Each structure stands twice: as C-alpha cells, then as structure tokens.
Amino acid sequence: MGKILFGAGVLTGIFAAGHGLQGQDVPLAADFPEVYRVGGFDAPEWAEFSTSPRVSFDGAGRLYALDGSAGNVVVIDPLGSLVRIVGGPGEGPGEFNQPGAFVVWPDGRLAVADLGHNAYQVFGPDGEFERFVRMGSGNDMFSGVSNMRFGLRPDPAGLAVVAKGVPSRLGAFTSLIGELAGAEAADEGGVDDR
Predict the structure, then answer these.
(1) pLDDT, tens only, 66-108
(2) pLDDT in tens, 170-191
(3) Domain span holding position 50
(4) Theoretical Cys-Cys bridge with 129: which of 94, 118, 134, 151, CB 3.0 to 4.6 Å?
(5) Span 110-117, mean pLDDT?
(6) Domain count across the chain
(7) DSSP string, the chain
(8) Is the entire prediction scored with pTM above 0.70?
(9) CATH number, domain containing residue 113
C-alpha cells in the first residue's frame, strides 16, 4: 500500500498503490513557455512599475496591473502590448489618491478601492470612469479606514464587489482613533462579506 500524505499527496499515495509505484516520487517538470514579460530594465515607460503591482485578468486574457505608487492601472493585451492606462494620481473622478485593492470583472470593468477618496472608483470596459461608490457613511478621514474592505473579489454575476470586512481588532483600533479625532463611533462587528 502506498504512503498517504496530506493534500495533493493523498492522490499520489492512492494512485501509486494501485499502479505499483509504491513510495516513489515522480518529478513534474515546470517548463512553462514565456508568453511575455512586463517590467525590467529595458521596459517601456508604461511598464516601469514603482512597486510590485497587484494584478488580475479579465475574460479576454488582458492583464490589469495596479501600481499603487504611480496611481494607475495598466492594461496589457495577451501578447504583452499596452491597451490603455486607467486613472492617474489626483483628486478628481477617475484619479487615484491612495489606491489599494482592485477587482476586474470578466467584461473588463474594474473597481479600485481608493482610500484617499473614501470610495471605490468604478470604470467601464473602455477604461472610462463611471462612478464613485462610497466606502462609508461619513466624510471624515477615518471613515474610509474603518469601513475599508479587504480581500476584494468580483461578484460572478458582474453586478457587485464582494469584500471581506475589516478584522475586528483593526476595526476597533481605527474606530478608537477616529473617535479621538472627533468622528462618530463606527458599528462594532467582525469580519464579514459584503
């Protein structure tokens, strides 16, 4: 009988027991062909990320890279060419002031959590700004932190953003700081999906 290991090893153990490969490891080659490379010393200016970007893909295979320091989202086609740059640093609609997490729907629409605006900014498939969706009910600087969500993911139906709530200890800390600065008390609660 083969060894039974946790995780993927369970299947290996069962498979090996049934095929006379008891206790033998079978190496798997990780020889993936490079499709394209983004960034690096010889990269075009649009691909010079100031920090490691957060990335996601749409249904057409386009790569979306959020560079929080540069305050934009770079959209790259499946062959590695620039499609568009969404946003940029600033204070107006479609401009980012402390962008964080983001989601991309299969049709290419995206939403960026922008702490500086205390809102999610929603963009259409063409990269054009559509609307703000406020993170919290207040306009004070701590409202966004206490209402900010972590672990964003797109709703499969394409109608919403599903977000994991603020961990209770972080929420309590930001609420306390906000109250000391004169903000209204935030609702108590743990991590939730919204």
Answers:
(1) 998 889 999 999 999 999 999 999 999 999 999 988 999 999 9
(2) 455 555 555 665 555 544 444 4
(3) 34-180
(4) 94
(5) 90
(6) 1
(7) -----STHHHHHHHHHHHTT-TT--------PPP-----STT--GGG--SSPPEEEE-TT--EEEEETTTTEEEEE-TTS-EEEEE--BSSSTT-BSSEEEEEE-TTS-EEEEEGGGTEEEEE-TTS-EEEEEESSS--STTHHHHH--EEEEE-TTSS-EEEE---HHHHHHHHHHHHHTTPPPPPP----B-
(8) no
(9) 2.120.10.30
